[in-house]
Write a structure and sequence with these properties.
Number of strands of chain B: 8
Strand content of chain A: 25-35%
Oligomer: heterodimer
Largest sheet of chain B: 7 strands, mixed
CATH topology of chain B: Nuclear Transport Factor 2, Chain: A
Order of helices and strands of chain B: HHEHEHEEEEEE
Structural class of chain B: alpha+beta
Helix content of chain A: 10-25%
Helix content of chain B: 25-40%
Distance between the termini of chain A: 6 Å
Number of strands of chain A: 19
Distance between the termini of chain B: 33 Å
Shape of chain B: globular
Strand content of chain B: 35-45%
Radius of gyration of chain A: 23 Å
Largest interface: A-B, 43 and 39 residues
Largest sheet of chain A: 7 strands, antiparallel
Chain lengths: 429, 186
Amino acid sequence: MSATPSASTAHSTGPVSAPLSAPLDWPAEGVARVPFRVFSDPEIYAQEQERIFRGPIWNFVCMEADVAQPGDIRTAWVGETPVVVTRDHDQKLHVMINRCAHKGALVCLKQRDKQDSLTCVYHAWNYGLDGQLKTVAFRHGLKGKGGMPEDFDSTKHRLQPLRVATFCGLVFATFSDQTEPLDQYLGAPMSKFLERNLGRPLKILGVHSQMIHNNWKLYAENVRDSYHATLLHTFYTTFKVNRLDMDGGIILSDKKWHHISYAKRATLDQAGEYKNANVHSAKFESNLAGPELLKAWDEFEDGITHSIQTVFPTLVVHFTLNSLAVRYFVPRGVDKTELFWVFLGYERDDAAQEKMRVMQGNLTGAAGLVSLEDGCINEFVQRGSTTSPDKRAFIEMGGKVAESNESSRATEASVRGFWHGYRNIMGFN
Amino acid sequence: MAFGTATATLWDSIKRTMSTPSVTAHATHAVDANTHHRISTLFTQYAHCLDDDRTDDWPGFFTADGLYQITTRENEAAGYPIGLMRCEGRGMMEDRMLALKIANIYEPQHACHLLGPAEIHPHTDGSYHARSNFSVFRTMQSGDASLFATGKYLDHVVNENGQLRFQSRRVIIDSRCIDVLLVLPL
């Protein structure tokens, strides 16, 4: 099929990537199949940078808490592009490419900083927190000699800005003028659930990252895959934190880009299938020697005790028992992805509640009792599939279409939803 | 002088996690050679236990209510309480070891700890605080061997009926980023 950009991506900014040397033919079965080539082809990876990350979507860049005060500076990424996030003295947030207007050097090197302005170390060009060029060293030369030409106009040399929007303590940025407003991009059901989980003053409790050796889309699939969660992650199932025989469901956004998967622990009605299917995850029947690990309290009246929510392309919010975290992943190459974890609590938490969140911090992250398998499982897919670009994944659990399912999570509906959105934005029709 | 300042800083960061926060530091001198040797041997035995996959023995290096924590330099600097791993008491350590043996799924791997010399100071209550550096190399099934982590141990060591154990061992790794996953304690 044609790899021509679809109408919605035609206005993306930045370099336009070359057409694929060999067109990608998406299988006739549609979103129930995924050609393995999309995980290993450097040309497709380059097109994604243009059509997705520099295209008409909102990219999560950092937490508002990272840039809470005027002068706070945080470096981040939009796709592979390095960006700087700042808060100026009028409390306004700015996201700009971390690239000096002079020679293109990184302007900010530290992950976090606090300064009144930004200065490139190479030739000391100095920018305001809003990215406007303020001063150029030796602009008028020295002792009347040298300096910039008379027609040098400092207003024409600023850090390249992105559009910025925030919601529930999350900072988003987009390269494209065509991106719809953030509330429309998220849609009402997604916004409402983000508000449930993040809609009050947040407190960062911990951060780290892990380098996973797979294409970024394998992790995007992985977090949408409610089928695997209770099979691979033994800890969930054994301690009855999350099982498919609890009430739960899947909600997809209008464009199927974003999703929510949720479960209600109090509704567990143990299904024989876990035992009969001889799944690895049902074999571990021990009780915890340190049960305080799972000490939890009911935070919400809706009965939901486990949820994973995604916002296309690379944002995830999980809330398991009282463990709340934002995860986001940054592509580092066609077969490499950095997965970031931001563990959160609320400002209103008392000491006992914060302690429970801290102990439950053991469940997720790079060393998470529940989640650590995801650090390697996507790499196993990458290694298994990379030499077979012409073969494809089979994704028919729960049907062949991408629709919400509020009665069962034994489905790959959200994974198909991701591919629905991906094909549209990439023009792989 | 710098030595005293460094010691006070070290002690501050160790006592932050001790069960008796009321104790104050009077640690200004080094331990005798015999004690230094005994504590250094504890560190060596701990590392060899992990490198030789004797995971069942690992909780025994701690007191019953001992603390084991792995966090990052970034979290430590920001005062964030959630790092990568936190076990309060041997029970949670045993759960970790059981999970890595029969629950968690990961590619088989082996660790090799290289330890730096320890700076050890006695405390008036008969316990010791120590700081030492480490690097851990990891070898995968493919034969790929690489540097997995560098950082420092901040320890509080107590003498339980002649047996030295960790009341707390806090592992502060330098990088924010873990390659693939972390399943074996450091």
